[in-house]
Amino acid sequence: MPTSPTSPEPREGQPAATTDHLAWRQHIPALASAAAGIRQASDACDAVSDSFCDLDGWPIDEKGYADGKVKRDAEAWKHVEIFLDHGPEVLAGVRAAAGGTDYLDGPISEDLRRLRGIDTTLERAGQIRHEWDQVLALMDASLPGSRELYASQALEIRNSEGWHHADELSFQGSALARAADYLANQMDPDQPSQTERAQVALARSTSGNRGIPPTSPPAPPASNPTAPRRSR
């Protein structure tokens, strides 16, 4: 059972398996990208949803409004799948690596506090995936060929049920990726952090500047708890 974020295990005396971060570190960029992908899907939907609503926010183009939500939910669910596949492993690594000071007043203390509800989010999203996988399997077993007729509708319902959890993961998942990147870099400072890897990739893609290291951008804030969440 993973360590509770309210009572973290100290780094001292941990078994070797919990301090080997190399296995879960490789998933950090994928989680960061998935969290960003959910936010992008939400923002893209918000950017056009107002055009389907009146001044009071009520839909006047029901089909256009509904189609926008269907597209948002489908895109977001693809990123939820990434969290379901890799999030628990990274979360366990973070909780094993984080010490008491990290939770109290360290650079990632706010991110670690935001992880308190991520277990429930992942569990419930996993239940949705399992239930609808069973539904699709029953379609294939009971009515051969029915999947082609009804799978699209079934997946649309699944994605809609999963949107709330996707919305949570856009914030909780970002916190997890930031905390994981910080802790992994602290444990192995010789390895480049996620931000440094992104800078190297950008430098390589910029013609004429391959020999010049990119200028480090200002460090992003540890969290953004006041970010607006407009998608309905």
Q: How far is the first residue's CA from the last residue's CA? A: 34 Å
Major beta-sheet overview:
none
Binned, the helix content reads 55-70%
Strand content: under 5%
Q: What is the string of SSEs from the N terminus onward?
A: HHHHHHHHH
Overall pLDDT metric: 77
Structural class by sheet pairing and helices: mainly alpha
Radius of gyration: 21 Å
Coarse shape: flat
The parts where pLDDT drops under 50 for at least 5 residues are 1-19, 198-202, 205-228
Account of the 3D structure:
By secondary structure, the chain is mainly α. Helix content is 67%, strand content 0%. It contains nine helices and no strands. The chain has helices at 16-19, 22-25, 28-49, 62-97, 100-104, 109-113, 118-142, 146-187, 194-205. It starts with 15 loop residues before the first helix and ends in a 27-residue tail after the last helix. 30% of the residues are buried.
Show the helix and strand layout.
Elements: H1 16-19, H2 22-25, H3 28-49, H4 62-97, H5 100-104, H6 109-113, H7 118-142, H8 146-187, H9 194-205
Helix pairs in contact: 3-4, 3-8, 4-7, 4-8, 7-8
Give a quick set of tags describing it.
232 residues; disordered N terminus
Compose a concise summary of this entry.
Residues 1-19, 198-202 and 205-228 have low confidence and may be disordered. Helices cover 67% and strands 0% of the residues.
